[in-house]
């Protein structure tokens, strides 16, 4: 009910303000009705209700500009209370988890704050982790620190819980969607890497501290093309081999990705070099202050497996050829989808003037999300596709083939469904087109 209540409050206050929300073609009464329809769409879990509302808005030829304006409106009243909260709860995966949260007091109704999710290590907890970060960040960030058994943040349950926590925090507090960070220490560093790589377009930066990933998952570093990484690792860390962090940094550097690597030689009394020295705090905070997400970059690079097929920015690898399903189960019972197979690779390049190039390896189909800010909907969209092959450890693109050549049609359903999934007002798309490789590969292996 929270979403519905927020939208209705916004509706009432905006109606009383007497200020138009869009051009004169949309009356205040019609905008109020549209807000109510959007609120109902976002609140319902019934697919039939969703389809009925979308068909209604299509029949009414609802303006995409009006819908976007409403989706970008800040809630009139937020339930989130500023201050330090050490025992909040979140229900996810039919379980209840605890987390700690700090939120600054906004000076105005319009003020937003950067947010950071901090993941603890084995033996840690959210309440024990949060206070140090409140002081490190000078009480200028919204900070959420969840608790999870054994700090097993690589598990699917933990991942889904963190993604839900981000969405719910952003609904209750004034979060700057272009300045969301994820950080973690030890096991938490593994989680920061994994969630950063699988959901790179969500974060303005990834901060792994005293932890790394194994070579099996280094394939997915490709996804961090536009997501800066700030790594802090102790040379004498007895828990994580320094060679792993050095290898990650080498890969990111070779790809010319935005990455900072800080290797210290300090030794703590309890865990050797397995901690973050206070001397590293100020440089990290200065770096974070400079980071801001680019919501819709022109170039997208991604690697995907069957358990992580969500869009990255405006492109999605929607079907692959015999893709692997990779999963490391955690301490809780969870659904396991694990199988050997291939890794899918997709590169998408927006060249301007309605021209897009896509290249794929082990790709059967991709989907491209388009907005008025990207293309001219009065002109055809031209997409060329290429198959990527391995040759002497290099990726070589094949000949360019036609992938799409027609006008893209705006669809209110695409706009609303994508927003409902992400709840991100900076990622709003008017249309979706499909590009298939079936003709070139000869078959389609559905995932």
UniProtKB/TrEMBL annotation:
<feature type="signal peptide">
    <location>
        <begin position="1"/>
        <end position="17"/>
    </location>
</feature>
<dbReference type="InterPro" id="IPR003140">
    <property type="entry name" value="PLipase/COase/thioEstase"/>
</dbReference>
<keyword id="KW-0378">Hydrolase</keyword>
<dbReference type="InterPro" id="IPR029058">
    <property type="entry name" value="AB_hydrolase_fold"/>
</dbReference>
<keyword id="KW-0732">Signal</keyword>
<dbReference type="Pfam" id="PF02230">
    <property type="entry name" value="Abhydrolase_2"/>
</dbReference>
<dbReference type="InterPro" id="IPR050955">
    <property type="entry name" value="Plant_Biomass_Hydrol_Est"/>
</dbReference>
<protein>
    <recommendedName>
        <fullName>Phospholipase/carboxylesterase/thioesterase domain-containing protein</fullName>
    </recommendedName>
</protein>
<dbReference type="GO" id="GO:0016787">
    <property type="term" value="F:hydrolase activity"/>
</dbReference>
<feature type="domain" description="Phospholipase/carboxylesterase/thioesterase">
    <location>
        <begin position="156"/>
        <end position="257"/>
    </location>
</feature>
């Amino acid at each position: 009910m929270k979403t519905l209540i927020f939208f209705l409050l916004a509706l009432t206050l905006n109606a009383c303000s007497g200020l138009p929300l869009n051009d004169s073609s949309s009356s205040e009464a019609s905008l109020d009705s549209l807000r109510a329809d959007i609120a109902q769409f976002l609140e319902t879990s019934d697919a039939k209700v969703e389809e009925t509302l979308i068909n209604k808005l299509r029949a009414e030829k609802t303006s995409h500009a009006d819908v976007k304006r409403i989706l970008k409106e800040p809630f009139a009243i937020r339930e989130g209370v500023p201050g330090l909260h050490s025992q909040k709860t979140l229900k996810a995966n039919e379980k209840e988890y605890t987390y700690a949260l700090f939120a600054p007091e906004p000076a105005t109704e319009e003020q937003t704050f950067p947010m950071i999710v901090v993941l603890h290590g084995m033996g840690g907890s959210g309440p024990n982790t949060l206070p140090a970060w409140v002081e490190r960040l000078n009480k200028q960030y919204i900070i959420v620190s969840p608790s999870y058994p054994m700090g097993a943040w690589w598990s699917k349950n933990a991942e889904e819980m963190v993604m839900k926590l981000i969405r719910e925090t952003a609904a209750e507090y004034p979060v700057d969607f272009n300045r969301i960070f994820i950080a973690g220490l030890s096991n938490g560093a593994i989680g920061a890497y994994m969630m950063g790589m699988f959901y790179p377009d969500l974060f303005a930066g990834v901060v792994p501290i005293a932890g790394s990933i194994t070579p099996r998952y280094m394939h997915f570093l490709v996804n961090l093309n536009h997501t800066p990484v700030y790594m802090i690792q102790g040379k004498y860390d007895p828990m994580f081999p320094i060679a792993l962090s050095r290898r990650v940094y080498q890969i990111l550097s070779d790809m010319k990705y935005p990455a900072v690597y800080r290797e210290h030689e300090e030794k703590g009394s309890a865990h050797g070099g397995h901690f973050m020295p206070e001397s590293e705090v100020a440089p990290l905070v200065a770096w974070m202050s400079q980071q801001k997400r680019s919501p819709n970059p022109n170039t997208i690079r991604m690697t995907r497996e069957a358990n992580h097929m969500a869009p990255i920015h405006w492109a999605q690898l929607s079907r692959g050829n015999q893709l692997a399903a990779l999963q490391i189960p955690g301490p809780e019972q969870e659904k396991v989808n694990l199988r050997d197979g291939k890794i899918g690779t997709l590169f998408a390049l927006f060249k301007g003037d309605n021209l897009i190039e896509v290249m794929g390896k082990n790709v059967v189909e991709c989907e491209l999300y388009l907005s008025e800010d990207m293309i001219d909907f009065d002109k055809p969209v031209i997409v060329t596709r290429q198959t990527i092959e391995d040759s002497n450890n290099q990726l070589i693109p094949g000949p360019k083939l036609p992938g799409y050549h027609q006008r893209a049609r705006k669809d209110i359903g695409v706009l609303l469904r994508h927003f409902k999934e992400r709840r991100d007002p900076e990622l709003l798309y008017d249309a979706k087109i499909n590009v298939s490789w079936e003709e070139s590969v000869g078959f389609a292996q559905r995932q």
